[in-house]
């Protein structure tokens, strides 16, 4: 199955989650601090990181930023509260998704699977549809999952890429936050729209010439987001 | 007294008091001085006129023989007249000099002069004051006796100069009065300011204190009664502030304690929750009691998790950190999704007109609907129904059942925390916070001063009815891009 790096300082929580995820068939590597987690990533590989935000020493946000700066490894954060600034800050630091403690093992399992599906390739376009699309200065290769802007490749995390593919699949059509949550995050029901907002912000930072005046991913107030029109 | 007008403001009262005091004093002083000075001036004028007349009369050429001839009379009259003084000389019916004067002589005056007195009289002609002096020329006999000669002399002496002096005095008095009135008003204003400013400050401070600003204090100036009042006010405010601070601190401590306990419980619960799946899966394979025990631990872990989550939710409402995540929602679709997600679709009859859009927090709506419908399914009797109505500003969602309804004694308490209508009800049915949380969630939605609401009641036809009212377009302070234009960035 997949390799999960679990960074959690409480030993019982660590043990419990390791036990639960192992029984789901994951290979779980559990460490207690952010420093250990970053060190582990240098020596071994992982498919997904489950990261507690409240850590002694280097906090979860910093760990999140460092992992994000080195690659597109998916990150799911464990947070104590769902309503507070932790979630927003974690998403801004680059987390792909979050779960609230105490978390049901099957919920965490579902989020891990969803995030891993985003990393994997999308089934190639069927029929004669061209795989490479051009939108202004942007080129999106749906088969190779490569995005270039003015010829230069843009490094997108899996969730950002999925969001871009979803939006650009129907240029000019408005997609609601809930629609995007279902399509990209696979939250079948009442997801947190802040996930979408945070991801859109990150996407804009990478794609747009001016994040404050976006061209590609536009906000439609009261409804959601729209790709273009260019 | 009813009809009497009473000045109300302290400032006006002080002003009137000072003004009347100033006016009265000035009027008395100026009036008395005026009358005195006027009398003195007139008296002096009169005396000097009389003396002068007597001296002049003495110098008149002695009458050689009586009766005098008309020429004698004319000569005497001419001697006694000059620029603005005219004289009349009479002797037993024959006159010489100012003939007009003879018309003005009264019999009483003539009688008095005939008897040898020197008479004077003040009179005015054409607005000009005059002094009329009358006397009789005396003769000295060869033996040295003086006797009246029957020759009467009247002289009119102008008092214009004196009148001018008196007029000047009067205008000086008026001027003094006016100045002192102005001065009195100024003094009154200053005095009123001195008294009114502290009083007004006290009023303002008391108002601020009443509005809840307990740190309000007054500056204590001087040692008078007003300073005493200010000191008392400060003392009272300080005591009040200390007690309120103490109460707030106690309340905050209690709330923080609940929040801390809830959060502390979360870590062990996370570990326990993580392994409940293991317990559930292994329970059937465990022998007898161990299997039952494993299932019980798993079940209660879920209940405890729910209680702790609800407690944390409640502490968030109490501390004011609960935030709305607003979204444009098709309410009918959202309600259907809530029912579908919990497998209640077949047990609930719905009347949900499609296309009812509202801007609200979909997760909080889900919590409310799940609580209300869950309650109805547990405690009421089927059929449980949900119906939605809307006007331009509000959506109204009603959840009803056909059970026995709510006891009227219970009604005021249904949204209280941990309130159990039936003390025998087991705790596993809920945390006891569900309706309280639903109520808070409803109130969190607001449009201006108006807030969402959740109310409980009984249907006259039987059964409990819960009515949820939420604003369709509540203010949204959370999402900054909601304040921007319809489409940001791109072309519209």
TrEMBL record, chain A:
Domain OmpR/PhoB-type span(s) in chain numbering: 130-229
Entry-linked SUPFAM superfamilies: C-terminal effector domain of the bipartite response regulators (SSF46894), CheY-like (SSF52172)
A GO cellular-component term linked to this record: cytosol
Gene Ontology biological process: regulation of DNA-templated transcription
Residues bearing the modification 4-aspartylphosphate: 52
Domain Response regulatory: 3-116
Keywords carried by this UniProt record: DNA-binding, Phosphoprotein, Transcription, Transcription regulation, Two-component regulatory system
DNA-binding region(s) from the entry: 130-229
Domain of life: Bacteria
A Pfam entry, by short name: Trans_reg_C
GO MF annotation list: phosphorelay response regulator activity; transcription cis-regulatory region binding
Name of this chain's protein: DNA-binding response regulator
From TrEMBL, chain B:
Database matches in PANTHER family: SENSOR HISTIDINE KINASE TRCS (PTHR45436:SF5), SENSOR HISTIDINE KINASE YKOH (PTHR45436)
Protein name: histidine kinase
Region (Disordered): 469-492
Enzyme class: transferase
Listed transmembrane segments: 172-196
InterPro entries tied to this protein: HAMP_dom, HATPase_C_sf, HATPase_dom, His_kinase_dom, HisK_dim/P_dom, HisK_dim/P_sf, Sig_transdc_His_kin-like_C, TCS_sensor_his_kinase
Primary site of residence: membrane
EC code: 2.7.13.3
UniProt-listed Gene3D superfamilies: 1.10.287.130, 6.10.340.10, Histidine kinase-like ATPase, C-terminal domain
Organism (species): Micromonospora musae
UniProt domain Histidine kinase: residue ranges: 260-474
Keywords: Coiled coil, Kinase, Membrane, Phosphoprotein, Transferase, Transmembrane, Transmembrane helix, Two-component regulatory system
Subcellular location: Cell membrane
Lineage: superkingdom: Bacteria
Annotated SUPFAM superfamilies: ATPase domain of HSP90 chaperone/DNA topoisomerase II/histidine kinase, HAMP domain-like, Homodimeric domain of signal transducing histidine kinase
Taxonomy of the source species: Bacteria, Bacillati, Actinomycetota, Actinomycetes, Micromonosporales
Domain HAMP: 193-245
GO molecular function: phosphorelay sensor kinase activity
Catalytic activity, as annotated: ATP + protein L-histidine = ADP + protein N-phospho-L-histidine
Coiled coil regions, renumbered to chain: 230-260
GO cellular component terms listed in the entry, alphabetical order: plasma membrane
């Amino acid at each position: 199955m997949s390799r999960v790096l679990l960074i959690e300082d409480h030993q019982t929580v660590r043990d419990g989650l390791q036990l639960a995820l192992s029984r789901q068939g994951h290979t779980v590597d559990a460490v207690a601090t952010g420093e250990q987690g970053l060190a582990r990533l240098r020596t071994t590989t992982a498919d997904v990181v489950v990261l507690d935000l409240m850590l002694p020493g280097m906090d979860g946000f910093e760990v999140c930023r460092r992992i994000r700066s080195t690659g597109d490894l998916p990150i799911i954060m464990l947070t104590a509260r769902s309503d507070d600034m932790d979630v927003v800050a974690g998403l801004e630091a680059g987390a792909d998704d979050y779960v609230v403690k105490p978390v049901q093992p099957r919920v965490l399992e579902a989020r891990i699977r969803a995030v891993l599906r985003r990393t994997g390739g999308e089934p190639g376009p069927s029929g004669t549809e061209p795989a490479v699309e051009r939108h202004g200065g942007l080129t999106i290769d749906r088969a190779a999952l490569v995005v270039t802007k003015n010829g230069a490749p843009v490094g997108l995390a899996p969730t950002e890429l999925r969001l871009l593919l979803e939006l650009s699949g129907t240029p000019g059509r408005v997609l609601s936050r809930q629609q995007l949550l279902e399509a990209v995050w696979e939250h079948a029901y009442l997801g947190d729209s802040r996930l979408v907002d945070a991801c859109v912000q990150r996407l804009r930072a990478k794609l747009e010439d001016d994040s404050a005046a976006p061209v590609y991913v536009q906000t439609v107030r009261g409804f959601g987001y729209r790709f273009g029109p260019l | 007294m009813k009809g009497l007008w009473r000045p109300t403001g302290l400032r006006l009262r002080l002003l009137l008091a000072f003004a009347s005091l100033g006016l009265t004093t000035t009027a008395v002083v100026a009036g008395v001085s005026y009358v005195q000075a006027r009398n003195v001036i007139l008296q002096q004028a009169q005396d000097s006129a009389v003396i002068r007349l007597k001296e002049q009369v003495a110098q008149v050429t002695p009458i050689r023989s009586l009766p005098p001839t008309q020429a004698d009379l004319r000569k005497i009259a001419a001697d006694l007249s000059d620029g603005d003084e005219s004289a009349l000389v009479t002797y037993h019916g024959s006159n010489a000099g100012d003939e007009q004067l003879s018309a003005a002589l009264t019999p009483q005056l003539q009688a008095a002069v005939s008897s040898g007195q020197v008479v004077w009289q003040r009179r005015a002609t054409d607005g000009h004051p005059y002094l009329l002096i009358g006397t009789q020329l005396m003769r000295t006999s060869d033996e040295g006796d003086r006797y009246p000669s029957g020759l009467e002399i009247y002289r009119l002496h102008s008092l214009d100069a004196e009148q001018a002096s008196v007029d000047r005095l009067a205008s000086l008095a008026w001027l003094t009065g006016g100045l002192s009135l102005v001065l009195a008003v100024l003094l009154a204003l200053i005095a009123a300011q001195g008294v009114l400013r502290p009083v007004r400050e006290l009023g303002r401070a008391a108002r601020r204190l009443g509005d809840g600003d307990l740190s309000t204090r007054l500056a204590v100036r001087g040692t008078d009664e007003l300073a005493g009042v200010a000191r008392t006010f400060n003392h009272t405010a300080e005591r009040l502030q200390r007690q309120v601070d103490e109460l707030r601190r106690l309340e905050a401590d209690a709330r923080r304690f609940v929040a801390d306990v809830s959060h502390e419980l979360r870590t062990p619960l996370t570990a326990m929750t993580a392994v409940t799946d293991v317990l559930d899966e292994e329970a059937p394979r465990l022998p007898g009691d161990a299997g039952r025990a494993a299932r019980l631990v798993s079940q209660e872990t879920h209940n405890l998790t729910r209680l702790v989550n609800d407690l944390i939710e409640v502490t968030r409402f109490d501390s004011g950190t609960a935030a709305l995540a607003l979204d444009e929602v098709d309410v009918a679709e959202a309600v259907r999704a809530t029912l579908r997600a919990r497998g209640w679709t077949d047990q609930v009859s719905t009347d949900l007109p499609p296309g009812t859009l509202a801007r609200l927090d979909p997760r909080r709506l889900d919590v409310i609907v799940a609580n209300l419908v869950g309650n109805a399914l547990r405690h009421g009797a089927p059929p449980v129904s949900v119906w939605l109505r809307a006007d331009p500003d509000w959506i109204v969602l009603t959840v009803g059942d056909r059970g026995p309804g709510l006891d009227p004694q219970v009604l005021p308490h249904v949204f209280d925390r941990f309130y159990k209508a039936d003390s025998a009800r087991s705790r596993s049915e809920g945390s006891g916070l569900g309706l309280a949380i639903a109520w808070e969630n409803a109130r969190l939605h607001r449009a201006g001063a108006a807030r969402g609401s959740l109310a409980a009641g009984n249907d006259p036809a039987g059964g409990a009815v819960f009515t949820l009212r939420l604003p369709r377009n509540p203010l949204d302070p959370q999402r900054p891009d909601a304040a921007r234009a319809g489409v940001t960035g791109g072309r519209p």
